[in-house]
Write a structure and sequence with these properties.
With 166 residues, the protein is mainly beta. It is built from no helices and 12 strands. The strands form 4 sheets. A 5-stranded antiparallel sheet has the order 2-4-11-7-6, with no helix packed on it. It is elongated.
């Protein structure tokens, strides 16, 4: 008998890295108090999970980094790190539903080979070089839930903090 688990990862929190409201920022001055960098993240939702499936459940989400005042602004160089989540380890992030857990992880590419974390071994961060001259850029986050995890039925989730350093 194949049980289907309802699985939804709230894998990202909306993070605003500057609380100052923009006020007539000069063109090109992104990443300063009057024109802070804004970070928006969408969740990675895995939908229905079947532990007996032949392949892992996969999905993706996005992280968008932009200047608050877009017109005439360009992003500074920066890196994007993801926290380990509530389980506290990158080796195997875990989603929770009460006391039940499901393993999952977040990756930098659809190949699902490099864990997106804070740069500590074995994880990597994503970077943007200011030479691109953009006021907005988007990164894709790839997620995977391994097969053969039998757990309680429910809505599973985790909280990931997105940190942009510039």
């Amino acid at each position: 008998m194949i049980r289907r688990l309802r699985l939804l990862s709230y894998a990202f929190c909306l993070v605003l890295l500057a609380a100052t409201a923009p006020q007539r920022a000069s063109a090109g001055a992104c990443g300063v108090a009057l024109n802070p960098v804004l970070v928006l993240a969408s969740g990675v939702s895995f939908g229905l999970y079947s532990p007996g499936a032949a392949t892992a459940a996969t999905s993706s989400g996005t992280i968008t980094v932009t200047c608050t005042v877009v017109l005439g602004s360009t992003l500074p160089s920066f890196s994007v790190a993801l926290s380990a989540g509530t389980n506290g380890t990158f080796a195997q992030r875990k989603m929770a539903f009460g006391t039940a857990r499901l393993n999952y992880n977040l990756y930098t590419s659809p190949a699902l080979t490099t864990i997106w974390g804070d740069g500590t071994t074995p994880t990597m961060t994503q970077s943007y070089a200011a030479s691109g001259g953009l006021a907005l850029t988007t990164f894709t986050v790839y997620g995977s839930v391994p097969t053969h995890q039998f757990s309680a039925l429910g809505l599973f989730g985790d909280g990931i903090t997105v940190t942009v350093t510039y």
